[in-house]
Design goal:
Elements (H helix, E strand, L loop, with lengths): L2 E6 L8 H16 L7 E5 L14 E7 L5 H19 L6 E7 L13
Parallel strand pairs: 1-2, 3-4
Antiparallel strand pairs: 1-3
Helix pairs in contact: 1-2
Family: Belongs to the MIF family.
GO molecular function: phenylpyruvate tautomerase activity
Pfam families: MIF
Length: 115
């Protein structure tokens, strides 16, 4: 289950966060190759962040996934999420940092829907 946590110093008041969550979910699922039903996105706004010595719009993200990460995938994910943040929140791509964690399934408890 990929989980993307994004924190930004931009206020989310009046922002269509549903569009951000939807686009991020779709991008992560498509690029990693996991079903959207297993992707979680957490978006926090108005978080005090200084980047490069200024408090201009910036964002920090951490993406945890059980497999599916590495080289080209990480580059594609960074570009896709940075594009969403730039379009929806006016966070310049150069003021976004994304950290990746590729982990093992044994470190998580996940209870998918029974079918």
């Amino acid at each position: 289950m990929p989980c993307l946590n994004i924190s930004t110093n931009v206020s989310l008041d009046g922002v269509d966060t549903s569009a951000i969550l939807s686009e991020a979910t779709s991008s992560v699922a498509k690029i990693i190759g996991k079903p959207e039903a297993y992707v979680m996105i957490v978006l926090k706004g108005s978080v005090p962040i200084a980047f490069g010595g200024t408090e201009q719009p910036a964002a920090y993200g951490e993406l945890v996934s059980i497999g599916g990460l590495g080289g080209d995938v990480n580059k594609k994910l960074s570009a896709a999420i940075a594009s969403i943040l730039e379009t929806k929140l006016s966070v310049p791509k150069s003021r976004f940092f994304l950290k990746f964690y590729d982990t093992k399934a044994s470190r998580f408890n996940f209870f998918p829907k029974r079918r």
